[in-house]
Design brief:
alpha+beta; four-stranded antiparallel β-sheet; 29% helix; globular; binds 2-acetamido-2-deoxy-beta-D-glucopyranose; Class_I_gatase-like
């Protein structure tokens, strides 16, 4: 079975790159974060895959630079089981587990499709259920465990209150991991602490997780859209909504600062950075204001 995600896009965002340097933890104040591109539906010359610019701005706004990770798997399509996106995600997931077990801090953030991908990679199965969540902002229903979470630890108390009561988290997905399916899966339960849930009125689903033993995080909602996407009326832009974008970005980029990987040379680094590409204004025809396209 192939799960196609029409509205829900990206991102497994991961702090990466080549040879690890030194074991001692010192902050890396020049973090570079890889963002997975995904295949377009109708490839054209020079436009085989893309990254929504909002993911790039999200990370840049918190002090990171971005490298696009483009891995094509012809005939893919946006599937979490068979696509270049899913293959690359699987590779980075494995590398992250191995690195972290060696004491080499390697964080991953999966957003929306990326979150769904993480649940598949961890459980080894596709446990997703269809939900009515294509284009709706919701408050988070925090679990008791969220109080001790790494992800929300530095969020101000008033923002946590707003997140719990106002519709600040935008959902653009047709598939979700129901709390029931999560609870039935030992592998998922052992691996992830559930920080929040939501419901579409019928089914309760998991909306935020963090791994117990690894710096691996997932949000079914889109932290990056609030500040950077204005194409849809249901994307919230209140002051609290923008803070949600900021604090989530700050959190993840801080995680990336604990990673000491570097490129082999400055030249290699310069060649890889997303600054080599120009975003295109796509807001007139797409839900994304701007996209980066790749060959
Ligand atoms: C997941 O939940 C759905 C109901 O939403 C169910 O049909 C499906 O069988 C569940 N999957 C597993 C593996 O339990
Ligand atoms: C889906 O959710 C929307 C609210 O987000 C609601 O208006 C609509 O009736 C729901 N559709 C179904 C089939 O439940
Ligand atoms: C929040 O989660 C609790 C525990 O699962 C549940 O009892 C409650 O109905 C949920 N509230 C909402 C608004 O979804």
């Amino acid at each position: 079975m192939i799960y196609i995600h029409f509205v829900c896009v990206l991102a497994i965002v991961n702090a990466v790159f080549s040879a690890s340097q030194g074991a001692e933890i010192k902050t890396n104040d020049r973090p570079i974060i890889g963002v997975l591109a995904q295949e377009v539906y109708n490839p054209q010359p020079g436009r085989n895959s893309y990254i929504a610019a909002s993911y790039v701005k999200f990370l840049e706004s918190a002090g990171a630079r971005v490298v696009p990770v483009t891995v094509l798997f012809p005939g893919g399509g946006v599937s979490i089981e068979r696509s270049g996106y899913s293959r690359a995600a699987s590779l980075f997931y494995r590398l992250a587990l191995e690195a972290n077990l060696r004491g080499d801090y390697f964080p991953i953030l999966g957003i929306c499709l990326g979150f769904e991908q993480l649940t598949l990679l961890t459980s080894g199965q596709n446990l997703l259920s269809h939900t009515n969540t294509s284009g709706v902002a919701l408050p988070l229903n925090f679990t008791d465990e969220s109080r001790h979470s790494r992800l929300f630890k530095d969020f101000p108390g008033d923002l946590m209150k707003s997140l719990a009561s106002e519709s600040l988290t935008e959902n653009s997905h047709q598939w979700s991991l129901t709390t029931a399916n999560f609870t039935k899966c030992e592998r998922l339960k052992k691996f992830y602490r559930v920080l929040s849930t939501n419901t579409d009125g019928q089914n309760e689903f998991v909306s935020t997780v963090e791994a117990y033993e690894f710096p691996i995080y997932g949000t079914q909602w889109h932290p990056e859209k609030n500040a950077f996407e204005f194409t849809r009326p249901y994307i919230p832009h209140t002051s609290s909504a923008i803070k949600t974008t900021s604090y989530t970005a700050q959190f993840f980029v801080n995680e990336a600062r604990k990673n000491r990987h570097t490129f082999g040379s400055t030249e290699e680094e310069q060649k890889a950075l997303i600054y080599n590409y120009n975003p295109v204004y796509t807001g007139t025809e797409s839900s994304f204001e701007q996209k980066y396209y790749f060959d």
